[in-house]
Every structure is written in structure tokens, then in C-alpha cells.
Specification:
This protein is of the alpha/beta class and 344 residues long. It has 13 helices and twelve strands. β3, α4 and β4 form a beta-alpha-beta unit.
Length: 344
Amino acid sequence: MLREDVEFRRAFTVSQKPYRAKLDQNESPYDLPEDVKTHLLEKVKEVAWNRYPQPLTYHKVKERFAEEIGVPPERLALTFGGDQTILSAFLVAGGPGRKALVFEPTYPMFAHYARATGTPLDVVVLGEDYNPSPEHFLKKDYKLINFISPNNPTGNLMDVSVIRAALETGALVFVDEAYYPFAGVSVWDGLKDYPNLMVGRSLSKSMLAGMRMGYVLSSPQVISAVEHMNFAPYNLTHVHLVLFSEYGVVKPHLRRGAETVVKERERLFGFLSEMGLSPFPSRANFILFKTERHKELYTFLVDRGVRIRDVSSLPGLSNHLRITVGLPEENDLFMECVGEFLGK
């Protein structure tokens, strides 16, 4: 009774071991202040929970959120997390007979949604040197070309000239900018006049992982298609709409949290370099690094309550680990344990 073209495996999981420092899921180490949460909860209480979100409410909320982020509302769609932005790209441009392209190693949801939508997918494995080139897609009939900037787990930004070359092919070009708050730059700024550019962003990485909020930036034509396929506003809850509507209250806290994470990221990068662990420059809230003793180090850290991510199973990353930037005291604990492991 189940599809034969899908290998059904255990769902995406992370370590469940007890921890003193949780540095494995690219979340923000900071939460919203209690008074802000209280304000937001009061707003949620004002909504009739027995009623569905209405289209008029959705569009009013979208207008308020669009004003906060500085884009026209007709070029914005609100989504249930960043993952739904990726799924939306496959829903509007993929499907049987419509080939897509993705570069590895990267976030596994791209390949997952290709399978789910029956989209033929070409995968180019780049390994730790994650730098896509036009030679990978020119003179090929792709309907959907995917980039991630900064990429997870390598942390580097994409070359804008490569993305522009992809746009010139006429394919829908999806750029995942889930880590935009830490990068400080966006392809949207220079390429938004291309009608086939679709940018997906998430609010999960900067402080709202538990709320599952994302949004799409694109041309009105693509936005209309995305909202149609997601059946907006029924892809969202009243909680989502309240949080999007009150983004002006939340935004300063997200910004301050991201600024602190960037400072800590540079401190961690310096430490990893000093320890000889070959970190990769990152514009996200995590750092990829490598060591021939990756399995030993990973086990050593997890056993001491420091949860990081073993990414060695990803294509081209056979001896790599990834650490999410945490609170200063969590980062201190990580550095202390690494120093102990290396005898330094």
C-alpha cells in the first residue's frame, strides 16, 4: 500500500542525551524576554480559537510584516517555517518530468521534498569546497535550481554571479536564506528584479525555532502560486498570525541575539583555528570543522554533556563536525572539553 519509489526510514533525529550545552541544531541560544511573551500571549488570547484564520486577516498581517522587513506585500508569502518555503519551490516548479538541481552537502529537506513531489533531482556533490559553478546548470533543462546562502553545513555565502547566471536560464531559482540574520547580506537586494528569483527565509534560527515561522520573497506571479499551493491562510495558525503581526515587538530582540551570536562565532572560530581543528569561515550561526579523530571527539563531547553535530555522513564530509554557536558559557564549556580532549 506504500510507495515503492521511497525508502521509508526513521524520521530525522538528533541526540537525545542529557546536555549541559546544546550546540547541535542551529537554534538561537536566546529566548524572548518574559514580558514580550506575556504581551504576545495576551494577543493570542484575543483571537477566537474556534474559528479558522481568515484570508482578510492574513493579508492585513502580511501588510504589517512586509512593512517591518521593507518589502511590498505582493512580493511576500508567509509560511509554516522555513521548510515550507523549500516545499513551496518544489510544489510550484517541480513535479514529474520537471528536473531540479541541488548541490551537496546541504540541508536534507531538498532531496526529501524532491522525492515527496516526484521531482527528478540531479545532485552535484561539492564536498567541503561548496562553490557551485554555472557549468553545473548551463545548457541543461532545469525547471528548478536550488542554492543555500549561507549553506548548511559549510557556512559560506553563494557567489551572486553564479545565482545570476542561473536566473538567466529561465528556471525558478530558489535561494534558501535561513541564516540571513547572521550573514547580513542577501541576494534579494541585487537580484529582486528577476521574476524567477524565489528567496526562502526562516525566523527559527534567530530566536523562534519553536514557533515554526518562515516567509518567501519573490515576484507577484510566484507569490500567488505559492499561496495557492499552500492554501494560505490555512497553512498557518492564529499563533503564527499574531507573531507575524507583532514582529515589530519581537524584531529588536532577534537582532540583538543575532549580533551576540556573530561575536561568539568569531571567538569560536579563533579557538578552533588555534587548536588545529580546521574550521571553515562561516556567515551562519554554526561552524563546520574537521579532524581525523572526529568520532572520538564527538563521543568525548557528548559524554560530557556537550551536544554538537556529527555531519560525517553527509556527502564529501567524511571527517567533519559542526557546532552551533551557543551562550558564552556553553561555548566556554565546549572549548574546555576540546582542550581536555587534545591535552592542551
